[in-house]
Amino acid sequence: MTAANRYSFRKATVDDLPLLTAWQSNPHVRAWWDSDESYDAADLADPRVARWIVSTAERPFAFMQDYTVHGWEDHQNDRCWARIRIYRGENEGSLRCGCTRYRDRSAPGQ
């Protein structure tokens, strides 16, 4: 992979809130993302979730978050132990919105 094609990940900050709001208003993101509310500083400060801006050639193009599902009461019975969610901010290229669930393979029924 050449330097121009490498991806970089950095923690999302309050300076990214306008970018995230713009991205979340795009129809391809709204159709998949399960919230009508944009992130705020409190969301970014939540220690249960790591939120990332993904860039290539120093240009931000995607948002990613990863978290353990057991940080929320309504997920206590979820057999997944972590999730990664990502979307492409601009509707260009082939990256689609998605969610990956990582399951505990030692749990019954896995």
Question: Can you characterise this structure?
Answer:
The protein has helices spanning 17-24, 27-30, 41-45, and strands spanning 7-11, 49-56, 59-67, 80-88, 98-103. By secondary structure, the protein is α+β, with helices and mostly antiparallel strands. It has a single domain (3-103), classed as Gcn5-related N-acetyltransferase (GNAT) (Aminopeptidase, 3-Layer(aba) Sandwich), CATH 3.40.630. The chain has a five-stranded antiparallel β-sheet with strand order 1-2-3-4-5, with no helix packed on it. The protein is globular and about 40 Å long. The N and C termini lie far apart (36 Å). The mean pLDDT is 76.
Choose one word for the global shape. Answer: globular
Q: What is the helical fraction, as a range of percent?
A: 10-25%
How large is the count of helical segments?
A: 3
| End-to-end gap | 36 Å
Strand order in space, largest sheet:
1-2-3-4-5
Major β-sheet annotation: 5 strands, antiparallel
Looking at CATH, the homologous superfamily is Gcn5-related N-acetyltransferase (GNAT)
- Note the beta-strand portion: 25-35%
Number of domains: 1
